[in-house]
Amino acid sequence: MNQALTASELKYGYRPSESIVEGFNLNVSSGEWLGIVGPNGSGKSTVLRMLARLVTPQRGTVSMSGQNMANMNSKAIARQMTMLTQSQEASLDITVRDLVRRGRNPHLKWYEECRGKHEEVVDWALQVTSMRALQHRSLLELSGGERQRAWLAMCMAQTPCTLLLDEPTTYLDIAHQLELMELIRLLNREQGITVIMVLHDLNQAARYCDRIVAMKQGSVVREGKPSEVFQVDFFRDVFGIEAKVHNDEGVPVFLPCGVVRPLVHEGIT
Ligand SMILES: Nc1ncnc2c1ncn2[C@@H]1O[C@H](COP(=O)(O)OP(=O)(O)OP(=O)(O)O)[C@@H](O)[C@H]1O
């Protein structure tokens, strides 16, 4: 299978002497759905930002379809890759359709307007995300779940090969979480979009992802199919919790039972 994205030996720190991510390697195949999991502060979002070239690795390289992203211009990257985060700009007073049109910018020349075939792509993006009925509403008039779908529609209008998502379901209720996950599954399975998603809900990760990469303190500590990764010792070693793991028709389902050692704030015991 073709490699959609390859990261080798990534390093990043926000301050000169620190290393938040160190020796990070990743290969993602075209059409794969990869989940990145790990405790708070383990570097998941930092990795995602390096994959999207929102921050530049201090060491190592990220390649997209075999091309070093450091040598690509931003528009070329945006034609192939897009990122949805947990809380997009909430105070934007524009219609859903105008937001989705922005997704066409990487495909337009500086003098071109979003018309003709570009408007057809906008229609398609609204259709596939079930946002047609809301296209003339302002973003300010949408619920959290609808707004997240509107941003996803904008991402789709970019017609990306790869979709990066950073905890996209954080502020959604359980029904809207599942709705978004099902929609992403549809885009992954039917449009062949490669999905790389950071998520905290490990049961959802187990249910939807083809492969899991688990991070701890800036490095990959486990990697494999959900059923290979989500085992009792994983929850103990990576999250410091005792858990029971059940098998639901091949999908691991975990039940947290307690912390191995109490999580205390630094200096407080
Ligand atoms: N802009 C920043 N400036 C300084 N330090 C940062 C910045 N962003 C993140 N950090 C630090 O880098 C570390 C890793 O953060 P990151 O957001 O990548 O972790 P994460 O695994 O995504 O965490 P979470 O699960 O809590 O979202 C944390 O200790 C965090 O405090």
Blueprint (SSEs and pairs):
Blueprint: E1 3-12, E2 21-29, E3 33-37, H1 44-51, E4 59-64, E5 67-68, H2 74-80, E6 81-84, H3 96-102, H4 117-128, H5 144-157, E7 162-166, H6 174-190, E8 194-198, H7 202-208, E9 211-216, E10 219-224, H8 226-229, H9 232-239, E11 241-248, E12 251-259
Parallel strand pairs: 3-8, 3-9, 6-7, 7-8
Antiparallel strand pairs: 1-2, 1-4, 4-5, 9-10, 11-12
Helix pairs in contact: 3-5, 4-5
Bound molecules: adenosine-5'-triphosphate.
Adenosine-5'-triphosphate binds next to α1.
Main location: membrane
Protein name: ABC transporter-like
InterPro entries: AAA+_ATPase, ABC_transporter-like_ATP-bd, ABC_transporter-like_CS, P-loop_NTPase, Siderophore_ABC-ATPase
Bound molecules: adenosine-5'-triphosphate
CATH homologous superfamily heading of the largest domain: P-loop containing nucleotide triphosphate hydrolases
Strand content: 25-35%
CATH domain class name of the largest domain: Alpha Beta
Measured distance between first and last alpha carbons: 50 Å
Order of strands in the sheet with the most strands? 6-7-8-3-9-10
Please indicate the count of domains: 2
Main sheet characteristics: 6 strands, mixed
Q: SSE order in H/E notation?
A: EEEHEEHEHHHEHEHEEHHEE
Write the CATH fold name of the largest domain.
Rossmann fold
Structural class: alpha/beta
General shape: globular
Number of strands: 12
Low-confidence region ranges: none
**What Rg is obtained from the alpha carbons, in whole angstroms?**
19 Å
- CATH architecture designation of the largest domain: 3-Layer(aba) Sandwich
Percent helix, as a range, is: 25-40%
Number of helices: 9
Q: What's the rounded overall pLDDT mean?
A: 90
